[in-house]
Amino acid sequence: MQTQDLINKYQQIFKSDHQLELFFSPGRVNLIGEHIDYNGGYVLPCALTLGTYAVVEKRNDSLIKLYSENFKSQGIREIRLDENIERQDTDDWTVYVKGVLKAFIDSGYEVSKGFNAYIEGNLPNGAGLSSSASLEMLVSQIIKQLNHINIDTNEMVNLSKQAENNFVGVNCGVMDQFVIGLGKKDAAILLNCNTLDYQYVPLVLNDYDLVIMNTNKKRGLADSKYNERRKECDTALSLLKQKYDVHTLCELSSKQLEEAKTLFNSDVVYKRALHVVGENERVLKAIKYLKNGHIKMFGQLMNESHQSLKQLYEVTGFELDTIVELAWKEEAVIGARMTGAGFGGCAIALVKKGSVEDVISRIGEKYHSKVGIKASFYVVEVGDGVKVLKN
Question: Which of 51, 77, 239, 337 could pair covalently with 26 via S-S, beta carbons 3.0-4.6 A apart?
Fold first, then answer.
């Protein structure tokens, strides 16, 4: 998006242009390591050049006025800093803003500066690219900047996660906010979700483009099934603690899990653990392949990841399976998998440069014919984390 276009839109809404500041917070995509973050394992996400923008003007009172181009029918929404911040049924997208504000205030930070904000994102909502975490980290950066708060990115990540867990009510792990905060151009982040140790891994895709395939199936089941899967993983862990001194599922190897199979009286719970442990091992293999330039082998791991998410974790669904399986049939595609919570949303594919337009056209046509929904496609680049933009 062009900076001047955003400023012009701000001026149209708020009829002012006094000392405007611009902010950007990316979306993220997880390359491999799905449903691992809350099980203490490794994930490999990257920040995108798609994301959420804000044009902000500081106010002289404690009122916050918000306008989102993505929810324009809702008009200007207001939050008062001199009143208790509580969740309301009418909050809609502003629940994420209120959650972050409350997290900062409850942690003892002085948040007294009201502001106007025009917000616009080019991330599809509810598609699994973390539009909500992008907004949370955007608000964190705005609060830090306007109130001159001495806080590092890691703490902003923690506060944004607290907002999602405690205020919004989604029991997510830390991955989304972490990569949105600390993303780096042309690099993925290998993150240990148990210790938060991380390292940047150069993401050199050579002759391939990263394509996001949005099924345009809203993830209606995602939150309830997400919490259900977490409970199943907790059950598996409690059973495995009878045999092993572990705190997370991802401390185990596939061999150890196999040796403990008799502890399980539920095939479903065992399958969930089997996915988690196997997926964690795939991430570690993926790092070796990427570091050695073995992109096709990395693509094969993506395929295996999707199969596991379909058969063992059961979080894909008709639309995701259809679009991924159509991608697998394309000669120019070396790997494809769902990404995000599942039950709709997005998949990713590695597609040979020069073939991308034709591949997208064929997949799109066949997907629409089979599913009855038109998919959207984005050829994306890997970008930086949340930041203040130059005006």
Answer: 51
Round to whole Å and give the CA distance between 6 and 223.
32
The predicted model gives 76-81 an average pLDDT of 97
Residue 220: predicted pLDDT: 63
Q: Which residues contact 190 (CB under 8 A, 6 or more apart)?
A: 42, 43, 44, 198, 199, 200, 201, 283, 287
Task: Report residue 230 CA to chain centroid gap.
Answer: 17
* Angstrom distance (rounded) from CA 272 to CA 249: 10
Question: What b-and-e string marks burial along 187-197, b requiring 16 or more CB atoms within 10 Å of the CB?
Answer: bbbbbebeeee
Residues 118, 218 share a domain: no
Q: Which domain holds residue 24?
A: 3-202+384-389
Q: DSSP letter for 87, please.
A: -
What is the average pLDDT across 61-87?
Answer: 96
Same domain, 167 and 250: no
pLDDT higher than threshold 90 for residue 18: no
Average pLDDT value for the chain: 94
Q: How far apart are CA 130 and CA 1, in angstroms?
A: 19
Map residue 372 onto helix, strand or coil. Answer: coil
Q: Please indicate, yes or no, whether residues 61 and 164 belong to a single structural domain of this protein.
A: yes
- How distant, in Å, are the alpha carbons of 87, 92, 159, 215 from that of 96? 10, 9, 12, 24
Say which CATH number the domain at 77 has: 3.30.230.10
pLDDT score for 225: 87
- Judged against a pLDDT cut of 90, whether residue 77 lies above it is answered with yes
Q: What is the mean pLDDT of residues 74-98?
A: 96
pLDDT score, position 172: 78
Beta strand 63-68 with 115-121 is parallel
What is the chain's percent helix, strand, coil content, to nearest 5? Answer: 45, 20, 35
Q: How many other β-carbons are positioned within 10 Å of the β-carbon of residue 336?
A: 27
Is the confidence at residue 270, as pLDDT, over 80? Answer: yes
Report the catalytic residues.
176
Rounded distance between C-alpha atoms, residue 192 and residue 205, angstroms: 23
Q: What is the pLDDT of residue 126?
A: 66
CA 346, 350, 352 angle in degrees (round to 5)? 140
End-to-end CA distance of the chain: give it in Å, rounded: 13
The enclosing domain of 239 has a CATH number of: 3.30.70.890
Residue linked to tokens 């709709």: 344
